[in-house]
Amino acid sequence: MKEYGFMILGTFFFAFSVAIFAMPNGLAEGGIPGLALLLYYGMGWSPSLVTLLANGLILLIGYRYLPRTMIVKSILTIPLFSLFLFLLEDRSGPVHDPLLAALYTGVFTGVGFGFVFRSGSTTGGSSTIARMVNHKFGWELTGTNFVLDAAIVVGGIFVIGPVQTLYTVVALFIGKKVTDYVLEGFESKKVVHIFSSSYEAVAKSVRTNLELIRLFCRGRMMKTEWMSI
To answer: Which Pfam families match (predicted)?
Structure first.
């Protein structure tokens, strides 16, 4: 239940960020929400409908490449995000300071992503596509996700202009930092996610090597203490 609570809370924060701060202030996003916002600015299409259809199609294509638990949670997250977005659309006016709007967008997006990722779910879009091509072609996960998001953001130059695109980059940077804090806390620790079909062998190898490193470091410390005596 805790994971589903994180998922619902994170989805709401992300939708809140898009509808209350990004949309009224002419900012974009990465991935499918960013594409939906650009279509909203350029053609007046509803972001909630675009995200629902696009993410649903991507999830349908990626069904055979993604873990089943992620599929189940994403089936809940994707329509929930579109629902929250629909309910929050046109509920807010523009913030007169665009930098402040970018800061708010980044903070709420980061909190939302952090909770969604902690629940083991995904918001769909570019992250789902990145996982699919990683599974099919072996492309690097983070790099592929970055390229897909960057393509949407760069495309925003032709719709919202270079200034608003720059503010969008600021919002994405802040969102990335806030997401890291939500996932890892404020301590200087790092989490590494390894996706492999041979996960048991990888886990065993990691545990074995970490134990060897621990014993080695312990031996060096004991030797240093003996020499100091």
So the answer is: YitT_membrane
